[in-house]
Every structure is written in structure tokens, then in C-alpha cells.
């Protein structure tokens, strides 16, 4: 190499590693020594970083060689699941409100205090097209609580109720795209009430982008000394939990369950206790929370896969692989709904995973946590030789069961989506398209509607009379945004906890157009309520606000479609919804007090 004379031994070694990885083309056009020497060194430093942080074995040499193999298979149309036959695995379906649900929630409640939470939040959310990190999105407009605030408040509330003095740890996986903004947000809000030492950020590194079937890396547009990189997928979380020593530390600190969750699912933790009850009862090493899945919905299907040689595993089959797998194994219609149930027979993976900590640590020690990778190039034409844009290897956290022995106990807990799953993933256009094909829109508006719906439905399950609001269209997406009910985590997270807020549910009546906010971290008890309007009840930690009798009538709050002008000027979080919340009349009560009113109240503080 002409430039050898200007490189240190280490730098020359790195250039050799690149050659060995089949990446000599990146340096082929380098000018003679004396020109751009510092830039060449910077390039080699990046290569060093990529080599050292590359997931899996062999650094970038291993990465490039795995890429060539996977790209060759992909070009030939080899289905990675060829030879496997899917069937519907056994699992437990939960019905909130049933005696069985209460039993499991009680059983799992004892384990909530031994959970550690892992939030994967390294994704940019390209489908959503939001300008900031998704964790900062408001879950709903009544309180404008962000996803990060909500998760931290839920963890804190669960810790207070079940932790017996322990801090429940939270690890957040971030990437270069999200790291700075996530830590700035935590700092700006004093970790949302969590102790900074219970929160760990683990950062996933990107991997080289690949331009062709020879696994050749790509240079950044306009910078011939910078290798273009892309995210490697949420599966990196297991390597990081191992490499950063988080899993080991948690286990030593007495954590018995590791709870994985995604960046924008505000419903993630309400059914945690019940699902943990299933893990305990069935002694599950891996328990995937699942929902009845609509065919073609962008969630993977959990399947029992078996092969003729007798091998078998229960694992997620990602949504883009389920249809070809089914067609290739004799189900000629592919990914379709069962006409009897209206759902795909395969439970939908919501990537809310509960792992038993002991076995998880053992598997990480043995395997390092590196998961099987896949490649998903978008080919320019039928010849499958050129790509529309560079690709990369990826991995998914729910593929973890592939690391386990066939005897490992892997199962799922299925429940209605209103209780556990409503992510915000799609831009308005994509959400309209999703809804048009009969799958949930996963938009900012449906995420908000489902936050309210959860509490309305839980109150109904307990026996309260909560009317159902009409579906309205905003930007072509049909959602029901009323009644708007928010109960903050400090008041209740689980169905069992909500029970003590409404001890006489038959005496609680909420009209379709109402807004009820139950805020704070104290005790709120509502014996008898007739609400048609907006009511805000707030009790701080240590306070008890007791509503013995209350009838409220006011014009309340309303969602209003954005006008054409507002659409141009409104905040991005409103534009992505298509409406704003007009806060009109309201009635409020806060602090330690008893409210017993025989008259009808309208507005103001009680
Ligand atoms: N993520 C990372 N790093 C990455 C990519 C993603 O941390 O490199 C995080 C995201 O921030 C997010 C989570 O991983 O919190 C999931 O990412 P996506 O929302 O892009 O995931 P998909 O919608 O493609 O699919 C995943 C699962 C599906 C199904 C679905 C449900 O792969 O099977 O469970 O989530 O939301």
C-alpha cells in the first residue's frame, strides 16, 4: 500500500483488517502520502471502532463474511425458515375481570418487586417521521405525559408498592441517534423521580452499511474517509446487557425477572403482574406477551416451529416472514385471518418479553447474547444483484429463544390489545393505509385514544357505568377520543390497584363526553360520582382525597380538528394527530379532603 509509510503499525494493522474483510475498495482511491493524511488516520480510527464494537464474532471481518453468506442466500431466494413447519403454540389467554386474572395478578404481584426493566429506545422511528426521540412524544394531550415520564412514573409506583425498599432498575438502550437527547431529557427532569443510580443507559453501536452482494461497505456521501453506518436492530440489547455487565449486576442485586419493553407502548405495564403470574405458574424462562393478531398486522406471529429431524422451538416469526413461511409449508393462503375468529391463528408478538433472570444470565455467559442476524435488501430489479439503497445486517430481540436448548420453557401470555399494546409508529399516511387494510393504525391519535380507552374499559370491568364515545375521523384516521380518562401511575397501575379507587363501582357514572383525571401519588377514593364534563382529582403522596358524593355538569374539554391554518402552524405533536384539545370548563379537587355534595357542581375548585 502506497500509504504504508505514513501509518503507524496499529493503523497499518487496521488497513490490513479492512483488506481481509474484503473492504480494500474503501482505500483504493486514496491520494499519495502527504495529502489527507489526517483524514486517512481518522478513517482508520473509525474502522477500529467498528471492528471493536461489531456485534458477533470476528469484528468487521466476521460481519462482512456473515453478510456475504446471508446476501447470497437472499439473492437465491433461500427462505431462512425453510424446512420448519409452523403450528400454533400453547399459551395462556387472559381475560381481565375474570377470577383467573385476579388470581394471576395476585400471584405475579409478589414478583413485581423483583423486576428489572429494559427499554429498547435506539430506533429513530423512521415510519413515524417525528423530529425528536419517540420517548418524548406525549402519550395523550390531557396531561401531556411523555412516554419516558410515564414509564419512569410506573416503575416508581410499582417500586413503592411492591419493592419492599428495593430500587427497581431500569436500563435504556440508546443509539447514536437517541443517546444525547435521552440523557438530556433524564437530566432535565431529575430522572423523573427515579434515583439516578437505578437508571443505566447502554448504547448500541451502528454497523457498516453494505452496497452489494459481495458485502462491500459504503462510504458516506461526500466524505471518502467516513464509512456509512446503520442501526443493527433491537437484538443488540442482549449483547449489551452482557458486555456492560448489567444482567450480572442485576442478578447479584436480587432481580429475578427482566422485563423488555419498547419505546412507545403506553399500555406496556398494566398487565405486568398478571403476565408474571403466568411466568411463575408455568415456570417460563421466556414469556412473550401477545395479542390476537390481525393477518398482515405489522407484529410478528409467535409460532411453534418443528423440523423433520425432530428439532423444535417456540419463537416469533417476523411479520414479513410469516406469509412466505406459511405458503412454503402447505398453507396456500399465507397470512390470513381464521374466518371463525377474524384473527390470524398465530398470537401477535408485542415485544414485551419477560425473562427469568437466572437462566437469562446463564445463556448470556454461554453465548455472549449475540443473536442470529438477517438481511433485508431492497433489490433494484429481478436480478437481485443491485440494491435500491445500502443495506446492513440486523437482529431482533425476540429471536432470543433461538439461543436456548430445546427443553427451555418458552411460552406466551395473550390478552386483548386494549390492555397491553398500542404503539405509536406510523405517520398519518401509513396509519391511514394500515387502517384501510383492517389493521390498527398505530398513529399518535390511536395511541392517545387507547390510553383513555384502557381506563374506561378497566372501570367498566370493575362495574362502573362508563359510556362509549363515538368514533371520529381526524386526518382520515378513525379514533374514539372520549371519554378521556387518565389515572396516573402513583394512583394505580394494575386492575387490582384501581379497585381501591372505586370501591363501589356501581355508583360511578361517566358520560361519553367527559374527562376524568386522577392525578398524583396519594390515595384517591371515589365512592359515588356522576360526571358529565371535566373533573380533575389530585392527591399528593401521603394525602387522601375522598369523594363520597359528587355530581358534576360542565361543558368540559373537547378534541377539535385542526383548521387548515392551524395545520401549518401547530406543534408537530398536534399535526401528527390532526386535532388539538380545547380545554374549556372544569371542576377540580386536590389535597387531603372529603367531598360530599348533594347539589350539582359545575366549575371551579371544590
Ligand atoms: N430499536 C432499537 N434499536 C434499533 C431498532 C429499533 O432500540 O436498532 C427499538 C425501537 O426504538 C423500538 C423497538 O426497538 O422501541 C422496536 O422497533 P420498531 O418499532 O422499529 O419495531 P417493528 O415495528 O419493526 O417491530 C417490532 C417487532 C415486531 C412487533 C412490533 C410491535 O419486531 O415483532 O413485536 O415491534 O411493536
Strand and helix map with partners:
Layout: H1 9-20, H2 25-28, H3 37-53, H4 59-75, E1 85-87, E2 92-93, H5 99-112, E3 115-120, H6 147-162, E4 170-174, H7 179-188, E5 199-203, E6 207-208, E7 210-212, E8 219-220, E9 223-227, E10 229-230, H8 236-243, H9 246-252, E11 257-262, H10 272-282, E12 286-291, E13 301-306, E14 312-317, H11 319-328, E15 348-356, H12 357-367, E16 374-375, E17 386-391, E18 393-394, E19 410-414, H13 417-420, H14 428-436, H15 444-462, E20 465-466, E21 472-474, E22 477-479, E23 484-487, H16 495-499, E24 508-510, E25 515-520, E26 523-526, E27 529-532, E28 534-539, E29 544-553, E30 557-561, H17 564-569, H18 572-575, E31 579-583, E32 587-590, E33 593-601, E34 604-605
Parallel strand pairs: 2-19, 3-4, 3-11, 4-5, 12-19, 20-24, 23-25, 24-27, 25-28, 26-29, 27-29, 28-32, 29-33, 32-34
Antiparallel strand pairs: 1-13, 6-10, 7-17, 8-9, 11-15, 12-15, 13-14, 16-18, 21-22, 30-31
The protein binds galactose-uridine-5'-diphosphate (GDU).
Amino acid at each position: 500500500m502506497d500509504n504504508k509509510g505514513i501509518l503507524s503499525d496499529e493503523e497499518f494493522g487496521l488497513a490490513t483488517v479492512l483488506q481481509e474483510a474484503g473492504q480494500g475498495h474503501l482505500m483504493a482511491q486514496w491520494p499519495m502520502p502527504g495529502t489527507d493524511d489526517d483524514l486517512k488516520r481518522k478513517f482508520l480510527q473509525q474502522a477500529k471502532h467498528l471492528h471493536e464494537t461489531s456485534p458477533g464474532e470476528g469484528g468487521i471481518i466476521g460481519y462482512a463474511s456473515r453478510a456475504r453468506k446471508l446476501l447470497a442466500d437472499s439473492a437465491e431466494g433461500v427462505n431462512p425458515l425453510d424446512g420448519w413447519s409452523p403450528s400454533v403454540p400453547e399459551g395462556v389467554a387472559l381475560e381481565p375481570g375474570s377470577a383467573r386474572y385476579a388470581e394471576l395478578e395476585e400471584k405475579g404481584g409478589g414478583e413485581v418487586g423483583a423486576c428489572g426493566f429494559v427499554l429498547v429506545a435506539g430506533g429513530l422511528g423512521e415510519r413515524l417521521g417525528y423530529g425528536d426521540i419517540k420517548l418524548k412524544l406525549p402519550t395523550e394531550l390531557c396531561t401531556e405525559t411523555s412516554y419516558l415520564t410515564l414509564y419512569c412514573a410506573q416503575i416508581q409506583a410499582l417500586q413503592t408498592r411492591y419493592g419492599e425498599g428495593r430500587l427497581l432498575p431500569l436500563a435504556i438502550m440508546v443509539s447514536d441517534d437517541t443517546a444525547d437527547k435521552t440523557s438530556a431529557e433524564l437530566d432535565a427532569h431529575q430522572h423523573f423521580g427515579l434515583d439516578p443510580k437505578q437508571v443505566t443507559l447502554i448504547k448500541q453501536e451502528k454497523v457498516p452499511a453494505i452496497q452489494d452482494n459481495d458485502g462491500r461497505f459504503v462510504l458516506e456521501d461526500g466524505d471518502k474517509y467516513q464509512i456509512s453506518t446503520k442501526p443493527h436492530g433491537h437484538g443488540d440489547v442482549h449483547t449489551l446487557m452482557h458486555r456492560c455487565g448489567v444482567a450480572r449486576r442485576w442478578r447479584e442485586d436480587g432481580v429475578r425477572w427482566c422485563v423488555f419493553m419498547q419505546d412507545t407502548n403506553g399500555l406496556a405495564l398494566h398487565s405486568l403482574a398478571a403476565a408474571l403470574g403466568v411466568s411463575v405458574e408455568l415456570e417460563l424462562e421466556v414469556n412473550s406477551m401477545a395479542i390476537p393478531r390481525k393477518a398482515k398486522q405489522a407484529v410478528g406471529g409467535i409460532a411453534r416451529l418443528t423440523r423433520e429431524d425432530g428439532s423444535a422451538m417456540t419463537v416469533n416469526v417476523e411479520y414479513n416472514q410469516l406469509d412466505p413461511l406459511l405458503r412454503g409449508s402447505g398453507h396456500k393462503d399465507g397470512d390470513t385471518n381464521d374466518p371463525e375468529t377474524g384473527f390470524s391463528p398465530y398470537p401477535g408478538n408485542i415485544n414485551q418479553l419477560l425473562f427469568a433472570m437466572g437462566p437469562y444470565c446463564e445463556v448470556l455467559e454461554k453465548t455472549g447474547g449475540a443473536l442470529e442476524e438477517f438481511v433485508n435488501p431492497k433489490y433494484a430489479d429481478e436480478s437481485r444483484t443491485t440494491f435500491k439503497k445500502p443495506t446492513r445486517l440486523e437482529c431482533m430481540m425476540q429471536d432470543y429463544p433461538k439461543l436456548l436448548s430445546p427443553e427451555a420453557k418458552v411460552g406466551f401470555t395473550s390478552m386483548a390489545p386494549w390492555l397491553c399494546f398500542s404503539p405509536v409508529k406510523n405517520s398519518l399516511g401509513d396509519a391511514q393505509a394500515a387502517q384501510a387494510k383492517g389493521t390498527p393504525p398505530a398513529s399518535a391519535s390511536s395511541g392517545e385514544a387507547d390510553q383513555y380507552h384502557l381506563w374506561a374499559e378497566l372501570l367498566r370491568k370493575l362495574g362502573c357505568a362508563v359510556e362509549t364515545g363515538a368514533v371520529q375521523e381526524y386526518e382520515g384516521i378513525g379514533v374514539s377520543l372520549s371519554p378521556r380518562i387518565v389515572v396516573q401511575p402513583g394512583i394505580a397501575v394494575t386492575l387490582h390497584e384501581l379497585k381501591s379507587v372505586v370501591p363501589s363501582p356501581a355508583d360511578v357514572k361517566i358520560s361519553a363526553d367527559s374527562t376524568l383525571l386522577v392525578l398524583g401519588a396519594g390515595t384517591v377514593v371515589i365512592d359515588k360520582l356522576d360526571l358529565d364534563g371535566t373533573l380533575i382529582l389530585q392527591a399528593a403522596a401521603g394525602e387522601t382525597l375522598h369523594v363520597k358524593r359528587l355530581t358534576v355538569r360542565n361543558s368540559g374539554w373537547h378534541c377539535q380538528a385542526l383548521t387548515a391554518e392551524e395545520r401549518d402552524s401547530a406543534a408537530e405533536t398536534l399535526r401528527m394527530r390532526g386535532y388539538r384539545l380545547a380545554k374549556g370548563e372544569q371542576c377540580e379537587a386536590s389535597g387531603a379532603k372529603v367531598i360530599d355534595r348533594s347539589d350539582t357542581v359545575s366549575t371551579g375548585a371544590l
